[in-house]
Design brief:
- By secondary structure, the protein is mainly α.
- The chain is 87% helix and 0% strand.
- The chain has 6 helices and no strands.
- The radius of gyration is 17 Å and the shape is globular.
């Protein structure tokens, strides 16, 4: 809230638009968890690994393309919510950085879901807690408030959090 009304509005609008990309990655992650669980339960570990890699490639490619399309149409999409040029400019910049957030999040969805499907729930939970507090929350404060990057600093912190978690999984 200390970033101002325009920042709050831009955040809400961008989140509403990017939710469709988020849902796409999340559904692919859920289906991956089901298939990985089935394959590991049957003892087909090599096939489960190949499925993980295949779904990771598909997810990251699709999410990149969807996020890029949304960025290319940022002004008309944001224009559905507001005609304030400050909010539209801020939202367009966030949608560019969000391309990287969504790629990391897609990576995160597939890898975390694969671990859960294989029966490992403790490790993803531990990594999520540590990463959310240290990267997402702490770095949002450092980049956004202390370094004065505002909402852009928060989005950079979100991207770092998503990539860290995806890599750690």
């Amino acid at each position: 809230a200390i970033l101002g009304v325009a920042a709050i509005s831009a955040k809400i609008y961008v989140s509403n638009i990017e939710f469709y990309v988020y849902v796409f990655g999340m559904t692919l992650g859920m289906s991956t968890a089901l298939l990985i669980g089935w394959l590991t339960g049957a003892g087909n570990y090599a096939q489960a690994y190949r499925l993980n890699v295949q779904n990771l490639k598909i997810t990251v490619t699709c999410i990149f393309l969807l996020s890029l399309i949304i960025y290319l149409f940022a002004e008309p999409l944001l224009g559905l919510f507001t005609n304030n040029p400050e909010i539209i400019a801020m939202g367009k910049l966030l949608l560019f950085v969000d391309i990287f957030v969504e790629i990391g999040r897609g990576f995160n969805h597939i890898e975390e879901s694969s671990l859960r499907g294989a029966g490992d729930v403790f490790y993803p939970m531990f990594i999520s807690i540590i990463s959310c507090w240290l990267l997402s929350i702490l770095l949002s404060y450092v980049f956004g408030i202390r370094l004065g990057l505002g909402l852009m600093g928060c989005w950079i912190a979100f991207a770092l959090d998503e990539f860290f978690r995806g890599t750690a999984y």
